[in-house]
Structures are given as C-alpha cells and as structure tokens.
Amino acid sequence: MIKGKTVHFIGIGGIGMSGLAEVFLCYGYSVQGSDLRNSRSTDRLEKMGVNVKIGHRPENIDGADFIIYSSCIKDTNPEYMAAKLKNLPILKRMEALAMLMQDKKAIAISGAHGKTTTTSLISILLLNAGLDPTIFIGADVHFLKGNARYGQSDIMVTEADESDGSFVLLNPLYSVSTNIDREHMDYYGTMENVLSAYKQFISNTKDEGLVFICAEDEYLKNIARQSEKKILKYGVSDYADIKAENIKLMNLSGSEFDVRYKGAKLGRIKLSIPGAHNVVNSLAAIGVAMELGLNFNIIKNIIGEFKGADRRFRITQLGSDILIIDDYAHHPTEIKATLKLMEASGRRVVAVFQPHRFSRTKDLKDQFGKCFDMVDHLVVTDIYSADEKPIEGVSGRDVCDSAIKCGHKDAHFISKGDIIKHLIDVVKPGDAVFLLGAGDIGELPFKIAKTLEEINANNV
Among this protein's residues, is 365 annotated catalytic? Predict the structure, then answer.
C-alpha cells in the first residue's frame, strides 16, 4: 500500500467507514466511495473532496488501486464482485484500520456496551492535553465536529467493533474491554465463540502494553485470570485498580466521585454525563490517561467538559417542559441503563423503540419484553434491518407482544410513519419521551420536537 494511490470504500457513509475514509485522505491517499443513500457523513466527505457515488455499481470502482468494505457488505455486492474480477486487493474495515495502526501507539476500545462513550472520553483527554492523537469514534462528538481525526503524533485511539469478530485483527498497545454480553449472535452463534473472540482481542495486546478491563464484568474477570498480559481493572469494586468512591449521582446533571488509583486517592471528578455506568466508563479513560503520563488535575479539568457522543442520551427540552431524549440503546442491557436515568425524575415516561436487526430481535425477544417495566407508555415500531435479510415470522410486533406478556399495561405496535401522529395524542407536558434504537429512528427527535412545540404554541 503506497500513499498517493486510490482507495475505494464500499459503504462509505457508515459511521466507521466515513471516519476511516477521512483519515486515509489525510494520510495522502486519493479517496472515493459509494453508498446506498446520501447522509450527513457523505455530505461531510464530499466537502473534503471525496468523490461519493450513490448506489452500488461495478463501474464505481474504476480507478481504484484497492478496496475497503464495511461489515454489512456481502460478497454479492456488484462493486465487491467487480473488484474480485479485477484481482484488486480487498480489505475489511478492521484490516485497513490495522494497517494504519502498525506504527502507532494504539489504544483500542471494545465491549458490548459503552465503548463509544469510553473511546470519546479517552480521545478528549488526550486531544485536549496536547498529545495530538489520530482518532476513530463510532459516533459524532462535539469536540471533533465529526467522528474521526488525523493526528501528527504516534498515538491512535480507536473504537474496536466486535460485531463481526474483526476486532481480533488489531494489535494495540493498550486494549480496553468494557463488558461482554449476549450480542451479535447472528455472527457468533454461541457465547463460547463470543468469549473466545474477547480472549483473542485481549491476547493481541502487545506484551509491553496494558489490558484494561471492567472489574464489574464476570466474563472479563474470568478471562483476566487466565491471561498472562499485564492487566489493570477499573470499576467500583474493592479489587479494582482504578476505583470510584463516594459516588454522588445527580440525576440528569451528571455525577461526582473520588478516584483511587493503585491505592492512592487522587481527587474528586465532576462528570457532566449522567448514570452510574458512565462513572465506570470514565474510569477506563482516566486509567489510560494516567498510564500515558497525564497529570490528574489536567484529567479532572478536561473530563468535565465532555458533553456526550451523538445519540447517547441527547436531551431536548421543550417549552412545555417535555423532554425528548434520543439514545442509541438497542440491547436490553443498554435500554435498562438508559431508562434508569429517569427513575427518580417523577416524570411520566413515554418510550419509542425501534428494534435493530431481525436476528437480534429473534434472539433477545424475551429480554426485550422485560426491559421496559418503568415505561408508562411504550411504542414499538418496525425492525430496522441494517441490511440484514428478514427472518420469516420475526417482526417488531414480537417485542411489543413480549412486553405485554411480561405485564406491561400500555404497549403499542405502531408503524414508523405513524409515530408522530400517535405521540401528538399521547404526550403531555412534563413527560420524558425516549427515542431508542440504533437505526433511523435518530431522524425523528427534531421532527417530534418541532411538531409538539407547534402544537403547544397553538394551544397557548
């Protein structure tokens, strides 16, 4: 691979692919790509000079010296097939990332939940401390005005996507594992395969490096006991090497806590993002920063500035005292943690959930039914396929039926096109309205907020 050559990205609009394309461009490659539709990501790349084609056609790869494709691209894709016929080098996204990582002090963050927030926290700490890292995050963040950054230093921070097992291709100096859960079973098949992949990811950490694991996760603790790597545990447990003490959760305002690092009390942190789970996520970031030599006072000042990643508990407060909360949560564990943040608010909770992938819906239908118990009014809509083929007999209605079976008294299956109309009749001043899911439900918060504001203005 020689800088100056042309790389074609199949599925360039994906959050991981768009960031990679941006950094390849900064490395000196000529970048082009294609996707099925225009998006904020493709618009941003086009402004940088990237040639983006809409639709997948064989001729789109003309002029390319090699190909990078996203995990959702199948070998029947016309551009993938054309590249095969031309005998062009073809790389998975993680293979391309591993190529960029070769000469870097890389920090790779994986886990079923919390990896985007953890990656973002590590990134803002290192960036604002002047370490000039290259960054790849699985969501847009305010401090990058996007999700990727090319840095001049030898430090790289990257989210390591475990969904298709390709995170085992990475060989980082520091690895961070936030947790392990029953997730992406369409790829892994069994929990044994999931655990085997995480063992490999941790094992791939360089011998001179360090493995960070969450001390609260039983799977990770078991893996750590069998590992010969140098391991640093973070969490709230007594045996954590980086520990949060005297935690004060301040509802939606965030939290405060004392940090103890390898037995020494460092000081108190103020975190702007809410939730006990984010206290734990921040400990991983603090640990990485400390190991890289950052002063705790610098860490304390920077970390309080973090406002969260895009679609991670993003709040819009309307004039009628209605809260619209947009969150990427799409797994029962994530949904429970997100909803719990409103537990002591006294507000009526309305939740709209878009299931993500047919395979996940089928595999976790019963767990989904149990995770909405604190929701007063539940709306479930159609499954967002994420380019997955439908599974006969599986639909979003299954989640709604499961919630009713588990005792929910006010659950409704509504098609996506009718959600706003339904909410107009349901939502009242003082309500908290959650939009949950990893699909295109993220397009609705602004539209819902605008509609409810207009109705409220007309009623005044």
Answer: no
